[in-house]
Design brief:
Layout: H1 2-22, H2 39-66, H3 71-88, E1 96-97, H4 100-110, H5 118-141, H6 153-175, H7 179-185, H8 190-199, H9 206-225, H10 231-249, H11 281-314, H12 320-337, E2 343-344, H13 346-354, H14 361-379, H15 388-402, H16 405-414, H17 416-431, H18 434-453, E3 457-463, E4 469-471, E5 483-491, H19 494-508, E6 515-524, H20 528-543, E7 547-553, H21 555-564, H22 566-570, E8 583-585, H23 593-606
Parallel strand pairs: 5-6, 6-7, 7-8
Antiparallel strand pairs: 1-2, 3-4, 3-5
Length: 622
C-alpha cells in the first residue's frame, strides 16, 4: 500500500512540476528588444511614443474623472503603466494605463456606499491596485489567461455597451452643471443616475452646457477631418483656453462659476504604500476582494483581446499569460505610485502600432513623456483651468464610440445564446454594480456553453453482413439481442456525467440485454465525476446480472481509469491470469479491432461458441 501511495504522490508532484516548467513566464522579456536596435528603429519608437503620450495624458484625466477620482490618479497611472508594462508584458505594442471599463467599475463599486467618505475611497485605492496585481500574477502563474478564450465575446460586448451607457449618463451631470445636486441623490445605477438628472433638470446651468456642446462638436469635427492629429489633446487644450477666456471676459454671464478641476502638486505624486500590518487590514481586504478580482479579470480580458488583435496585424505570436503577468506587475507599481488600476488600452495600443512602433521602447518613451507632463502639470497650475464640462463632453464622445451597432447586431443575430448573454450582461450593467454585471455575464455564458458541451452522443451500433460497423436503425433489431454496442462521442466531463449514466441505465433496462460494449474511441475529458458515474454503472449492471465492456479506449481514458482505481472495478469478473479482460485499447492501425475483441469477450461471457468475428476497417471513412 505504501509503495503504491509513494508512486502516486511522486507522479502528482511530477505533473505539478511539469505544469509550471512547460511554459514558464519570462521575468524580464524587454531584454530582447535591444537586439537589432538602431537609429531607424529608435526614431520610429520615439515618434510612436510621442503620439501615444499626447493621447494618454488627457485620456488619463478623462478616466480618472469617470472613476470620480482626482485626475492626478489618471495622469500618474498613464505614466507609471506605460513605463513598467513593457518590461514584463508579452506584446511589444502593448500600452497599459487606465481604461473606460475598469475606471467605471471603480466608480460603480464605491458609489454603492461601501465606505462613508471620499477620503476613505482614496485611502483604499492603493490597496485595490495591489490586490488587482496580485490576482493577475497568481492567474498568470496558473495560466488562467488560457481560460479567457472560453468567455463569450458577447459578454464583453454587453459589458462595454452597458458601461458606456452608464458613463454617458453619469457624465451628463457635469455637462448640465448639476453634478453636486445629483451626487447628493446617491445615484448608484443607471436608473438612479437618470432619476437624479431628471429631478434636477430644471436647475441646468447653460454656461457649462455651452462649453461642453462646443467641445463635443469640435472633437467630432477634428476626428472626421484630422484623424492623424492628437485630436483629443488638441480639443481639450483649445476648449480649456476658450473656457479661461470666457471666465475672464464674460464672468457676468456665469462662466466664472463653471466647475474646474483642483490643481495638482508634487505632494500628490508621493508614493503611497498601504500599511499591511495596520488593524483592520483583513476587513479592508475582504471588502475589496470581489471588486479587485473583477478588475483583474476584466483587465486581463481587455488585455487579451487587445494582444490578439495586434498579433493578428503584426504576425507576432501572442503570449496571453505573459501579458497577464505584465498587467499584474504594472498594477503593483500603480498601487504604489499612481493609485488607479491599469489595463490594456486597445485605442492607445492600436495608435502605437499605427504610429510605426518597432519595439517596447515606444511604451517606455511614452511613459517618460507622460511622467514629464505630470511633473509640468504639478509645477504649473494648468489643470485648474480645465472645465469639468469640457472633459465630460470628451468622455461622452469616447463612450459613444465604444458602442458598436455592427458588433451588437452580429451578437444578437448569430445565436439565441449570444443574444441572451449580451442582453443579460447589458441589463445587469445598468441595474447592478459593474463587478456583479461582469460575473453575471460570464456565469451565463459558461452555463450555456456547458449545456451544449454536456450532451455526449450515444449511438447504438451493429455489425453489417459485410463486417462493417453501422448505426442501428429504428426498423432493425439487434443481430444479437443480448449484446449492445454503444458508441460514445463527446466530452464526458462532470457536466455530462449524469446524462451519460442516465442514458446507459435506460439501455440496461432491456430484459434481453446482458452485455453493453461502450465504444469510447471518441470520448474525451473524463474526470472524477464521469469516472464515478462509470463505476456506479458497472456496479448497477452487475447487480442486475449484466456486464460492461469498454472498447476503443484511448491511452488517456486508460490512464484516468487506472489512476482512479475504477479499472480494478471494471476487471473484477475477468481472470487476468487466463488472459481475460473487460477493456480493449484502440489501435490506430485498425480502430475497430478493439470492438471485435470486445465482441469475442462478450460471447465468452454469454457462453456462446461462434466463428471468429471479422470487422473490416476502411481508413478513407475515418
Amino acid at each position: 500500500m505504501l509503495p503504491h501511495l509513494h508512486r502516486h504522490l511522486r507522479r502528482i508532484l511530477r505533473d505539478i512540476r511539469g505544469f509550471f516548467t512547460d511554459n514558464p513566464l519570462d521575468p524580464l522579456p524587454i531584454r530582447d528588444c535591444f537586439r537589432g536596435c538602431n537609429r531607424e528603429t529608435l526614431g520610429a519608437d520615439l515618434r510612436a511614443g510621442l503620439n501615444v503620450a499626447l493621447l494618454a495624458l488627457p485620456q488619463g484625466m478623462a478616466y480618472a474623472s469617470i472613476a470620480e477620482l482626482p485626475i492626478v490618479y489618471g495622469i500618474a497611472c498613464s505614466a507609471v503603466a506605460a513605463l513598467v508594462a513593457p518590461f514584463f508584458a508579452g506584446s511589444r505594442h502593448t500600452i497599459l494605463g487606465p481604461t473606460n471599463a475598469t475606471s467605471f467599475m471603480v466608480f460603480s463599486f464605491f458609489a454603492t456606499g461601501v465606505v462613508a467618505s471620499r477620503a476613505e475611497v482614496l485611502a483604499l485605492m492603493p490597496l485595490l491596485c495591489l490586490m488587482t496585481g496580485f490576482f493577475c500574477i497568481l492567474g498568470a502563474l496558473f495560466r488562467a489567461a488560457d481560460l479567457l478564450q472560453y468567455v463569450s465575446r458577447s459578454v464583453l460586448v454587453g459589458y462595454i455597451s452597458g458601461a458606456a451607457t452608464l458613463i454617458i449618463a453619469n457624465q451628463l451631470k457635469h455637462l448640465l452643471g448639476i453634478a453636486p445636486q445629483v451626487d447628493l441623490e446617491g445615484g448608484q445605477t443607471f436608473i438612479g443616475i437618470v432619476n437624479g438628472i431628471l429631478a434636477h433638470l430644471s436647475e441646468t446651468s447653460w454656461p457649462p452646457l455651452v462649453l461642453g456642446a462646443a467641445t463635443f462638436l469640435f472633437y467630432l469635427f477634428m476626428q472626421r477631418r484630422f484623424r492623424r492629429l492628437p485630436t483629443f489633446a488638441l480639443t481639450l487644450v483649445l476648449l480649456s483656453f476658450v473656457g479661461w477666456l470666457l471666465r475672464t471676459c464674460a464672468a457676468p454671464l456665469g462662466f466664472d462659476k463653471v466647475a474646474t478641476f483642483e490643481p495638482i502638486s508634487l505632494r500628490d505624486l508621493r508614493p503611497s504604500i498601504p500599511d499591511l500590518a495596520s488593524p483592520g487590514i483583513f476587513d479592508r481586504i475582504s471588502l475589496l476582494a470581489a471588486v479587485a478580482f473583477a478588475i483583474a479579470f476584466l483587465a486581463s480580458l481587455e488585455n487579451t483581446v487587445m494582444s490578439k488583435s495586434l498579433a493578428s496585424r503584426t504576425g507576432d505570436r501572442p503570449d496571453i499569460n505573459q501579458d497577464m503577468f505584465g498587467v499584474g506587475v504594472t498594477n503593483l507599481f500603480a498601487g504604489i505610485f499612481a493609485g488607479m488600476p491599469a489595463s490594456g488600452s486597445l485605442t492607445r495600443s492600436a495608435l502605437n502600432f499605427d504610429s510605426g512602433a518597432r519595439s517596447r521602447l515606444a511604451s517606455v518613451i511614452c511613459g517618460l513623456i507622460c511622467l514629464a507632463g505630470t511633473l509640468v502639470l504639478a509645477l504649473v497650475p494648468l489643470v485648474s483651468h480645465i472645465p469639468k464640462s469640457c472633459l465630460a463632453a470628451l468622455v461622452i464622445a469616447i463612450a459613444i464610440s465604444l458602442i458598436s451597432p455592427h458588433v451588437i447586431r452580429i451578437c444578437l443575430r448569430s445565436t439565441v445564446d449570444d443574444a441572451a448573454v449580451l442582453i443579460v450582461t447589458f441589463l445587469a450593467a445598468l441595474v447592478a454594480p459593474l463587478h456583479f454585471a461582469i460575473f453575471t455575464g460570464v456565469a451565463l455564458s459558461i452555463t450555456l456553453f456547458l449545456r451544449k458541451a454536456s450532451r455526449p452522443s450515444l449511438v447504438e451500433y451493429e455489425i453489417s453482413d459485410k463486417g462493417d460497423l453501422r448505426e442501428l436503425g429504428e426498423k432493425r433489431k439487434r443481430p444479437n439481442p443480448a449484446i449492445s454496442i454503444v458508441h460514445v462521442e463527446g466530452d464526458l466531463f462532470f457536466g455530462a456525467a449524469e446524462l451519460f449514466r442516465t442514458q446507459i441505465q435506460r439501455t440496461v433496462v432491456d430484459e434481453n440485454l446482458k452485455i453493453i460494449i461502450l465504444r469510447l474511441k471518441n470520448a474525451h475529458h473524463l474526470d472524477a465525476t464521469s469516472v464515478m458515474a462509470l463505476e456506479d454503472l458497472i456496479r448497477f449492471a452487475r447487480k442486475h446480472d449484466r456486464h460492461i465492456i469498454v472498447s476503443g479506449a484511448t491511452r488517456e481514458v486508460y490512464r484516468v481509469l487506472k489512476n482512479s482505481g475504477v479499472l480494478e472495478t471494471l476487471q473484477e469478473d475477468a481472470d487476468r491470469h487466463a488472459g481475460q479482460s473487460n477493456i480493449f485499447l484502440s489501435r490506430p492501425s485498425n480502430p475497430n479491432l478493439s470492438t471485435r475483441d470486445a465482441l469475442l469477450r462478450a460471447q465468452q461471457l454469454l457462453g456462446e461458441e461462434k466463428p471468429e468475428i471479422k470487422i473490416f476497417y476502411d481508413p478513407a471513412k475515418e
